[in-house]
């Protein structure tokens, strides 16, 4: 039986993988089906010379990626409203853009509480940008998006 902490770690890993998959899809043109198959086959729990990849929660991973693609226009509009007018989503770092799409998908299409989504994706930002100010930026934008998507949660 999987412990509660292991389940939480698998969900966190699924979110990180979703951001990576969305980034890769944007740059490679791969389909949702091929990218999810690739990640589930070659990344979830895989061991390489560089180290071991965490086991991800496949259902959450697939849901985030599929919803991010299917609802991308809505999510991008929400993100644009949360950003300063001079910085539309197509001008921000592609990793952060993928992160906003993944977080927006979970926030708008799944039942995850907005505060959980914000905390989890701020952690993802720290994983990609450990030395920078990106985590604070991500926190502010996601907070704005969450208040628009689910105002009753605040």
UniProtKB/TrEMBL annotation:
It comes from Pseudogemmobacter faecipullorum. PANTHER family: ANTITERMINATION NUSB DOMAIN-CONTAINING PROTEIN, N UTILIZATION SUBSTANCE PROTEIN B-RELATED. This is Transcription antitermination protein NusB. Belongs to the NusB family. Involved in transcription antitermination. Required for transcription of ribosomal RNA (rRNA) genes. Binds specifically to the boxA antiterminator sequence of the ribosomal RNA (rrn) operons. Residues 13-147 form the NusB/RsmB/TIM44 domain. HAMAP family: NusB. SUPFAM superfamilies: NusB-like. Keywords: RNA-binding, Transcription, Transcription antitermination, Transcription regulation. The keyword Ligase does not apply.
